[in-house]
Write a structure and sequence with these properties.
Number of strands: 9
Order of helices and strands: HHHEHEHEEHEHHEHHEEE
Radius of gyration: 20 Å
Number of helices: 10
Structural class: alpha/beta
Helix content: 25-40%
């Protein structure tokens, strides 16, 4: 490798970093869409939207505790990809107002149900997909919680996020995107290596390339475990895009039997701890 190539690798321009992100996301999408026997949901998150709901008054969750430390009672927050309100609602209990951006109809239904159940009135929901047209107001803080892995146009997305933010932008992402955990199963099931989406490491590289200086903190989580191999199989069909009863499902069963590792509490694909990043930066390029 020559010096020019080394500098481009370690110090990418904002354009090159965003383009590399775009390449990974579009290639991963094409890989999934090329599967002959895959599920084809109109609303990918609709069937599992209830799992994105949680008690807004809960305690003892390290990530939520960390997020709430940033909340000021006189400020507004924007949760981009708010889902069922897992974080939007606890934040709303402490903030002046929360603007929830959510394009999934199923997720919006789950969020509305949580709002009604807990009587939280300072949440305003926007049916929007970013980057794109928006009627949402500017907020003091914007939150990107496990959203961004599969956003191809990440440069315009971050531009829009920063344009809607006064004080601080925040992203919560795993060090490696969640699908990386299931990547070892892809080859024996689908016959090719899995294309892995970008995660926290790639986001921080992109932010530095864009001229921001992000603050980064991490939370160490236990490995994802399942009580039995059958429970593991049931949980990995979705990220493997496998329909039950198909030839791919038979190959998946064999791969799970071969690759699952016995750990305390059951079985896992990867026994190593997971690292969750909290990345914050000031809006506007430095």
């Amino acid at each position: 490798m020559d010096v020019d190539a080394a500098q481009k690798t370690l110090r990418p321009s904002a354009t090159d970093a965003a383009e590399a992100w775009h390449v990974l996301v579009t290639a991963e999408k094409a890989q999934v869409e090329g599967l002959p026997n895959r599920p084809r949901p109109e609303d990918f998150y609709g069937p599992i939207s209830e799992s994105f709901r949680a008690d807004p008054y809960r305690t003892g969750e390290e990530l939520l505790d960390r997020l709430l430390e940033f909340v000021r009672p006189d400020e507004t927050w924007m949760d981009i990809g708010a889902g069922g309100g897992r974080y939007a609602l606890p934040i709303a209990l402490r903030a002046k107002r929360v603007y929830a951006i959510e394009p999934s109809p199923g997720m919006r239904d789950a969020l509305a149900a949580s709002v009604r159940e807990h009587g939280i009135e300072n949440v305003e929901v926007f049916d929007e997909r970013w980057p794109g047209e928006s009627s949402a107001p500017v907020a003091d803080v914007s939150l990107l919680g496990h959203v961004g892995y599969d956003i191809a146009d990440i440069g315009p997305f971050l531009d829009q996020m920063e344009a809607h933010t006064r004080r601080m932008c925040m992203a919560v992402l795993f060090e490696s995107s969640p699908i990386a955990e299931f990547a070892p199963l892809w080859l024996p099931v689908h016959g090719e290596e899995r294309i892995v989406l970008p995660g926290m490491r790639e986001l921080t590289a992109l932010l530095f390339a864009r001229g921001s200086v992000p603050d980064i903190s991490t939370i160490v989580l236990a490995p994802r475990t399942h009580a039995t191999r059958e429970a593991l199989l049931a949980s990995v069909r979705r990220p493997l895009w496998v329909l039950e009863g198909t030839p791919e499902d038979e190959r998946l069963k064999a791969a799970v039997d071969q690759l699952a590792i016995e750990v305390d509490g059951g079985v896992a694909l990867r026994p190593q701890p997971r690292h969750l990043g909290i990345v914050t930066w000031a809006p506007g390029r430095r």
